[in-house]
Amino acid sequence: MSCGWHAHSSAWCYLKRGLNIEQPVDCERLRLGRPWQCGRRDGEGGTMSVILDLSYVYSIIISSVVAIIYTLLGGLYSVAYTDVIQLILIFVSLWVCVPFLLTNPHSVDISLTAYNETFQAPWVGTVELDEAGKWFDDFMLLALGGLAYQAFYQRILSASSYTQAQVTCFASSAFCLVLGIPSVLIGAVAASTDWNATSYGLPTPYERDQAGSILPIALQFLTPPYISVIGIGAVAAAVMSSMDSALLSSASLFSSNIYKNIIRKQASDREMQWVIRISVVVVGLAGTALTFLDSSVLVFWLVGVDMSYTIMFPQLVCILFFKVSNGYGASVGYLMGIIMRVLSGEPLIGLPPAIHFPGCRMDAEGKLTQYFPFRTAIMVISLASILIISWLASVIFNKGLLPESWDVFKIKRKQKPTPGAADHKRTISEQEESSVAKQLLDTTTL
């Protein structure tokens, strides 16, 4: 459920539900067609520091403490119920701000500046043929990269029925489009503004490398003060809905997949609740610390979405749609994906490409950039590796070409269990899942 714009040739500008915070959509500068670099201090802390003139450090700490506390005290209940409030705040706040931005006296009609250079370059550009591969890669990354996120399935699997889960997904995609419209309008207004006529002055936000803070800047200098405060509500709601989901999903991953299954298989429900609480605090503090690094915190989001698309998405597709998939194919596909992704390079973290795909060349900033849809290619290669190796391993062990003792993942077909045994196994599994769900829902019982 995210919207955004593509920032320069390899960077991203993230907009969470129509703001500049989470998942990517292609944008270039404040217009389509040219690069607009992401500022470093995005999100709620950056917005509060710009509009309320608070220290960035204090803004980040306040935001983090609030999110950690209500996630810690309420568990999945607090995340679910606060998300409803946050969605309402985002929708109302964004659309309340738009009329004031469009009618402010320092900006001209955005339809006039879409293709004509006025105070700044046009905010609508073109896609050059030699960059089509990169645009396609970015589009696929946006469309499919978030499907393997644990936070997404945390919400979907908590639905009361299959129908409710399906309706939620489809309704969210439509609602996301509506929430993305204000972001486009705000960017267009900023690109149509005579900043010299405002108290902000020249140079423009882009020239000051403050593109990532264009939302709070536009709210502060192009709207009345009370509208700026309403805008903070939209940003705060977007950030909180992302942070509480990340906190709880990370805590549940560690507690269920690592602590319960590996470290202490005999852990009680009360012990697991304490593990979840501690995990929420540790993950929250670690995430807060990352925001104070010199590198943009958006780099971590970019790398996360990238890894999700190139490595995790093929695993998800195979698990859901290909019965032939097994542990051998998944292991080889995972290694193939991560090795090829590392060798393809990433300018944002200073990793030069060892593999030069067709069209690899220097961009306008002098960085060696892949213009071939290499992420999609890696995803397809990883997917094919999973299926081919899984099929080969299945044939080898089922035909007895290798001894059964070598079958580490136990993929050899065996006699089907009796109905009674199958029902007993299913009952145990359901009891374990119910126990884990209860621990996530309630983290307050001592």
Describe the model.
This protein has 446 residues and is mostly helical. The chain has helices at 43-51, 56-102, 110-113, 132-144, 150-156, 162-191, 214-222, 225-263, 269-290, 298-321, 327-343, 374-398, 419-441, and strands spanning 3-6, 12-15, 361-362, 368-369. The strands form two sheets. A two-stranded antiparallel ribbon has the order 1-2. A two-stranded antiparallel sheet has the order 3-4. α2 (56-102) packs across α6, α10 packs parallel to α12 and α11 packs antiparallel against α12 (374-398). The protein is globular, with a radius of gyration of 24 Å.
Q: Which geometry do the CA atoms define?
A: globular
Order of helices and strands: EEHHHHHHHHHHHEEHH
Radius of gyration: 24 Å
Largest sheet: 2 strands, antiparallel
The counted number of beta strands is 4
Which structural class is indicated by helix and strand composition?
Answer: mainly alpha
Keywords summarizing the entry:
446 residues; two-stranded antiparallel ribbon; single chain; mainly alpha; disordered N terminus; 13 helices
Secondary structure: elements and pairs:
Elements: E1 3-6, E2 12-15, H1 43-51, H2 56-102, H3 110-113, H4 132-144, H5 150-156, H6 162-191, H7 214-222, H8 225-263, H9 269-290, H10 298-321, H11 327-343, E3 361-362, E4 368-369, H12 374-398, H13 419-441
Antiparallel strand pairs: 1-2, 3-4
Helix pairs in contact: 1-2, 1-7, 1-8, 2-6, 2-8, 2-9, 8-9, 9-13, 10-11, 10-12, 11-12
